[in-house]
Amino acid sequence: MKQVLTVQDLSCVGKCSLTVALPVLSAMGCACSVLPTALLSTHTGFEKPYVRSLTKDINPICAHIQATGIRFDAVSVGYLSDPEQVAQVIALADRFSATTIVDPAMGDNGKRYSGITEGHVQAMAVLCKKADYLLPNVTEAALLTGMPYEKTQDIGYYRELLQALCDFGAKTAVLTGISYPQEQTGFMLMEKDNEVFEYRADKIPGSFHGTGDLFSAVFTGGLLKEKTAPEAAELAAGFVERVVAHTPKATPFGVEFEAQLPWLWENL
Ligand code: PXL
To answer: Closest ligand 1 atom, CA of 113?
Structure first.
């Protein structure tokens, strides 16, 4: 069985991060270990959550895990709560020398999540340069590359952003949450050879929380099941689309992915 370590927060309420990655990766037949980076009462989309950053715990946990001799096929990184943690995760990726998938969870809709500072963005940029697969949304790509954030259907803008991500160092970049003309949404993927792969589907109106985390988890599982990057991204986008279609309303509590998990297994 393929071994994956998922590194992100544990939010008690509001499905995102670990509460999404663990069920999804397990349903895809991967052995999923977790490294919680912070413990929150809710994710930061709710007002004033209680947050306990686990910065001091990360290094001792990793040292012990490494001493057990376990090897991970992939390390998948999501929300980190401060710049010091980012530096530790950079060391962690080297420690386990696994394929690294980074979703630089820092913002959405043109805004940083509350608590994400400019220093955090700078630290994240260093981690992202080392990623084998980088999965930002448009807001995060703009933050990382310094390009302006635009709410547009201009494909030229998204291609430039994608190119900037690859020039920046990412081996494969997947830009998610693209607004295509004719009310379509999807992603664009660019590999080292500069080949671009596009995926489009009809947009369901609303801002559904945690879908980036869902995309990242399915993408990681797909790679571990020997799919190519475009195949894994297509599976992830297809799953997110299906989940959103089965979620009656966009709320901070997140999307209704649970009943769709069998579809993932059937489509592997
Ligand atoms: O879904 C991204 C995410 C992950 N983790 C925490 C968050 C968010 C987005 O708001 O607050 C704690």
So the answer is: 10
